């Protein structure tokens, strides 16, 4: 592949596709190169495993009232649910929590989050574990939710970064699949699949992109890949990235957050559709926690969410270990007999995918300020996009989308000024 164009977008995830839509509107020549065999990146909907749509990656319209995908969903006919009308159920290892215990757990979790946010807003870029203080009775639940939100353990979460995130109670599910919505919103774009870019040479007048199919030259590049891909050197630069920029990518690693999808022969739960479950073990507080969505789409199924270093240690034993853990959690709550009724299962492997490398970005303690560095272009011709650049919406799909639009606008401005 030896060719020339105005703009190349590297990566066809939510950010890269958004950039492509803006470039298409501008009517300039561009191409999108995607390393994997499918577009969408961490926005991916499975419609076969459970017989109903479910998302392997992003699922919730965070900050839904302001989220641009909310309007796109309405325009494209995608069903969106409101906040879950059923109260979350809490299982404590051997029994369900009483209403009083559930209320106390909520209070203790809120106290932990408030302490972390207060430290961050005060500019104390310390680990979340330090701000949270000694664990209370329901400390394992607070830890679990920190890990779900940040895909990292409390020792690896920056208080300043955590406080920077704009959180609201408006988290609405895309019932027909967020991944499917992202692809539908992008429409037809010039995406070349299975075409990883290994190096960007920005030493000359034109940028040269080295791929397995040959060299592609262009005037500007939008790099819409994960921080892990760049930090690992899987996408290299010549000359090399400035040390402060390379340090910024390394300071925002992708953590561990995966899903186990389980389809059963019949309804083994006896609960309403889309019932939410949190599970911790008060007798063994160091064990991994889990959160499950029961009967998504009305199917006799469960989506079990795990995150953080405790879950990552289980995953290191193999995919079967995560399935077994998920079944142990569900079996403790609804009876071990459900283990004999598993019809199908699927485990996400975002951490093992070489062109992803994890879940979503979380700044390391003491390094939160480096997130802003990613918004500065390289050589005035290379612009970065992705969930890590979503500003206060970082780690979300709509944050990635907005970063892609911003990167495309910056690339178009650079092209115009060069004329």
Automatic annotation (TrEMBL):
Signal peptide: none
Pathway: Plant hormone metabolism; auxin biosynthesis
Source organism superkingdom: Bacteria
Amine oxidase domain boundaries: 15-92, 172-411
EC numbers for this chain: 1.13.12.3
Name of the protein in its database record: Tryptophan 2-monooxygenase
SUPFAM superfamilies: FAD-linked reductases, C-terminal domain, FAD/NAD(P)-binding domain
Pfam families: Amino_oxidase
Originating species: Xanthobacter oligotrophicus
Catalytic activity of the protein: L-tryptophan + O2 = indole-3-acetamide + CO2 + H2O
Recorded family membership: Belongs to the tryptophan 2-monooxygenase family.
Record keywords, A-Z: Auxin biosynthesis
The organism's taxonomic lineage, starting at the top: Bacteria, Pseudomonadati, Pseudomonadota, Alphaproteobacteria, Hyphomicrobiales
